């Protein structure tokens, strides 16, 4: 069941939905945060510069403006519950303790680690909360949309506790199990300001350019050049929102020597010019 609420209430909910691989979106990002819970099935999930295995009981957190792309197995489709929500709906009151409902998302983005593996007891508890949201929205009782958001707060709190418990005495999970593709994605992320070419990446992976391009597209859903441009443009969005740097400075900082080329790429992926984007979003957190 998929429920989309109106623009004045930026929240949507998809309960126990399965998609064929051909119906999955290619690499994309959106303005809302996203929580994905895997009920069953297997696949791979690409988020930002990380590759993950998808299995029953996994939770994925995708912050807004973060590139991601799911790739379920053809013979074992993913069934998942997904919540999309705007940060504006989440309470952000300070109660003089090291917790806020959005701190989980902020910390996972900062650490570039977007997956939580749940134990069976936690799986059952979270599944109960997802079922309550589905019931609220299906029955359309008075305040059902607001009730759904309140339950989403409880989900964020529970996931924060689970992650805090799992991280006690544990090293950075993002450091382990890195294959050559993971290393390439990390390299691109760390070198957006430099010249990065297809032959350079293929050489680093010790592969021919043709084989490298083919595997890269199979993994991320797009070619290396398109991926690099998207990463650069989303970095430009962050700098336009959170700095006073000139557009020319930002273009150079993310690796574009040609200002017209930067403008073309920005319009291609965002739909408007960098200057118009900055004016329209001035003061946005």
Brief description of this entry?
With 285 residues, this protein is an alpha+beta fold.
Describe this structure in words.
The chain is α+β, with helices and mostly antiparallel strands and 285 residues long. The chain has two domains: 2-174, Regulatory protein AraC (Jelly Rolls); 180-280, Orthogonal Bundle (Arc Repressor Mutant, subunit A), CATH 1.10.10.60. Helices cover 45% and strands 17% of the residues. It is built from ten helices and nine strands. It has helices spanning 103-110, 120-139, 144-167, 180-190, 198-204, 209-220, 224-242, 247-253, 259-270, 274-280, and strands at 2-4, 11-18, 33-40, 43-47, 50-54, 58-62, 68-72, 79-85, 115-117. Strands 1-2-8-3-6-9 form a six-stranded antiparallel beta sheet. It has a three-stranded antiparallel beta sheet with strand order 5-4-7, covered by helices on one side. Strand 4 and strand 5 (50-54) form a beta hairpin. The chain is globular, with a radius of gyration of 20 Å. The chain starts with a strand and ends in a 5-residue tail after the last helix. Residues 169-178 have low confidence and may be disordered. InterPro entries: AraC-bd, Homeodomain-like_sf, HTH-like, HTH_AraC, HTH_AraC-typ_CS, RmlC-like_jellyroll, Tscrpt_reg_AraC-type_HTH. Residues 182-280 form the HTH araC/xylS-type domain. Keywords: DNA-binding, Transcription, Transcription regulation. This is AraC family transcriptional regulator.
């Amino acid at each position: 069941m998929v429920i989309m609420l109106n623009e004045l209430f930026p929240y949507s909910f998809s309960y126990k939905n399965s998609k064929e691989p051909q119906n999955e979106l290619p690499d994309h990002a959106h303005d809302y945060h996203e929580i994905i819970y895997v009920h069953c099935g297997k696949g791979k999930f690409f988020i930002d510069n990380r590759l993950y295995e998808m299995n029953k009981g996994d939770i994925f957190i995708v912050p807004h403006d973060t590139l991601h792309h799911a790739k379920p197995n053809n013979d074992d489709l993913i069934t998942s519950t997904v919540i999309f929500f705007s940060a504006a709906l989440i309470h952000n009151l300070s109660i003089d303790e090291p917790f806020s409902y959005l701190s989980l998302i902020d910390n996972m983005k900062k650490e570039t680690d977007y997956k939580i593996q749940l134990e069976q007891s936690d799986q059952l508890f979270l599944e109960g909360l997802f079922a309550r949201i589905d019931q609220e929205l299906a029955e359309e009782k008075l305040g059902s949309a607001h009730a759904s958001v309140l339950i989403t707060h409880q989900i964020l709190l529970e996931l924060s506790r689970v992650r805090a418990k799992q991280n006690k005495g544990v090293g950075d999970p993002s450091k382990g199990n890195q294959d050559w593709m993971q290393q390439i994605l990390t390299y691109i992320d760390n070198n957006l300001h430099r010249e990065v070419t297809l032959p350079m990446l293929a050489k680093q992976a010790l592969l021919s350019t043709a084989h490298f391009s083919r595997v890269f597209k199979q993994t991320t859903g797009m070619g290396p050049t398109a991926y690099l441009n998207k990463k650069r443009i989303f970095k430009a969005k962050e700098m336009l929102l959170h700095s006073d740097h000139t557009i020319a400075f930002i273009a150079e900082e993310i690796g574009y020597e040609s200002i017209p080329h930067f403008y073309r790429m920005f319009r291609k992926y965002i739909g408007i010019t960098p200057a118009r984007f900055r004016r329209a979003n001035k003061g946005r957190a």
